[in-house]
Amino acid sequence: MSDFQVLVIGAGPAGYVAAIRCAQLGFKTACVEKWIDPKGANVLGGTCLNVGCIPSKALLDSSHHFLHLQKHAADHGIAVDGLKLDVATMLARKDKIVQNLTSGIAGLFRKNKVTRLEGAARFVSANEVAITKADGSVETVRAENVIVATGSVPARLPIAPVDGELIVDSTGALSFASVPKRLGVIGAGAIGLELGSVWSRLGSEVTILEALPTFLAPVDRKIATAALKEFNKQGLTIHTGAKLAAAEVKGGEVHLSYEKDGTVQSLVVDKLVVAVGRKPYTEGLNLEGVGVQVDERGFVKVDSGRWTGVGGIYAVGDVIGGPMLAHKGSEEGIMVAERLAGQKTEMHYDVMPWVIYTWPEIAWVGKTEEELKAAGVAYKVGQFPFAASGRAMAHGDTSGMIRMLADKQTDRILGVHLFGISASELLGEAVLAMEFEASSEDLARTIHGHPTLSEGLHEVALAVDGRMIHA
């Protein structure tokens, strides 16, 4: 039996980061992971690296290149003859990126002296975990502290059971062997929009059904409205207030019926992607057996320090709820590691960055205008269009805008919302500004390079005070 000071269960972004930080702080640390890749090998990285954030971004990038060459290269004086798509090569590139990153985590474990354990973990007691390996053998590990970081899995729709062929979840949508002529997507959240965008750019007729009446409800309304208009222009057909009633596989097709505006409508597609969110994954852990509580939705209950209230058991990432974001899980893992070391690390959820990797991208931090109105907070707002950005013009993409909200009395920045080229990268400056409780005047007085996309943040900060220069 092996003894450790910290055992981390799960090697996704929350788990592997927590394990590395614990090891850096001097704890004897192990991390156990049961993920098996299609080749039968145990791999690190969890959903994000294997079938989530990373492979989806690889396909988004590849599909963007294809679409650009097909429809926009001529604008740059570039003639492309004989353009063709090789889906197999595209998928192989995606897989290679995944392999490089997952093997990179293994290297980081070796560098930081994290013991890697392979198999499925199950609590025997609060400080004892049994690990069942692929060959059926069982190893028992003792640990003073255990960090549960088992993540989440795609949520299911009983009326659209995933068969892995015609009806798939987000994982299956990353590996279509060919471009489906007609693709249906259930759910117009980040996952549905990103996967729909990939296959739309490659030639699919994509229809997205969203049960909620509002498109991208958590997003600033002006941003969401502009995004919906742009996505429609790109060829994505998005129906809001469309509740799936039935999904039946017939003759190699998926026949759908859905309710919208009080009527039942039909849709036939070649493939259907079910992207209705994710749910916590705790299967086989025996949490209840050791007294760890979960809520009615299956999320592990924790306090502000991510302690479960049982022994030395903590939980971080998707499995405890809140924003299901890789960076959120990673920071929680670091916070727990540092608290175990006696530090007083905190998490600031009010400055959590959010990104949807469509083209253009949608990114935001802080409060929306609607939230401030509902809370009765007096605010000022500035808005800057990318159409007025010289760098955006040079790039050839001037869609979208930046919006900034600041407190009317103190001028403190309360929210920044972007829809446009490189929004995910521009967001970092806004997050940093808000972390330091900056005012719009602080950004307005900060010199930005010219010509850059980040000048847009300078301009929108000026706009908050009614003194924007370039629009």
From TrEMBL:
Binding site for FAD: K57, T150, G151, S152, D318, M324, L325, A326, H327
Record's signal peptide: none
Active site residues according to the UniProt entry: H450
Its EC number(s): 1.8.1.4
Record text on cofactor binding: Binds 1 FAD per subunit.
Catalytic activity annotation: N(6)-[(R)-dihydrolipoyl]-L-lysyl-[protein] + NAD(+) = N(6)-[(R)-lipoyl]-L-lysyl-[protein] + NADH + H(+)
Enzyme class: oxidoreductase
Domain Pyridine nucleotide-disulphide oxidoreductase dimerisation: 352-460
Location in the cell: Cytoplasm
Main localisation: cytoplasm
Chain ranges of the FAD/NAD(P)-binding domain: 4-333
One cellular component (GO) term of this entry: cytoplasm
Disulfide bond positions: C48-C53
Residues holding NAD(+): G187, A188, G189, A190, I191, G192, L193, E194, E210, G277
GO molecular function, one term: flavin adenine dinucleotide binding
Cofactor: FAD
Record GO biological process: 2-oxoglutarate metabolic process
UniProt KW keywords: Cytoplasm, Disulfide bond, FAD, Flavoprotein, NAD, Nucleotide-binding, Oxidoreductase, Redox-active center
Additional comment: The active site is a redox-active disulfide bond.
Family: Belongs to the class-I pyridine nucleotide-disulfide oxidoreductase family.
Protein name: Dihydrolipoyl dehydrogenase
Organism for this UniProt entry: Thioflexithrix psekupsensis
